[in-house]
Design goal:
Length: about 120
């Protein structure tokens, strides 16, 4: 069974931090690129960050660059998204997804169910 499960979301004040986790099972994480996406009410889904399988190259949307950091722990089959200096506009449901081809920008084959992040005072 191929699964991705997000966790770590919650309510945080502006300027605060959260660390999201994407726990994977049923496949070897080493061979997949993992992307983080988010969708806010009334808005389309947008890419946030991605980490490739080959050399661990990372990519970030301009809106989060310098504030978010993606990392992976293949031994734990887990990808993390450290989110610092959070803003109200970061409020969204965050999803992780896996691309079998192993490169960011490829088709994402598997998706988690999402975790809610709310940034508000």
């Amino acid at each position: 069974q191929l699964q991705l499960v997000e966790s770590g979301g919650g309510l945080v004040q502006p300027g605060g931090s959260l660390r999201l986790s994407c726990a994977t099972s049923g496949f070897t994480l080493d061979y997949y690129a993992i992307g983080w996406f988010r969708q806010a009410p009334g808005k389309e889904r947008e890419g946030v960050s991605c980490i490739s399988s080959s050399d661990g190259s990372t990519y970030y949307a301009d809106s989060v660059k310098g504030r978010f950091t993606i990392s992976r722990d293949n031994a734990k089959n887990t990808v993390y998204l450290q989110m610092n200096s959070l803003k109200p506009e970061d409020t969204a449901v965050y999803y992780c997804a896996a691309a079998r081809a192993g490169l960011c920008g490829d088709e994402y084959d598997y998706w988690g169910q999402g975790t809610q992040v709310t940034v508000s005072s």
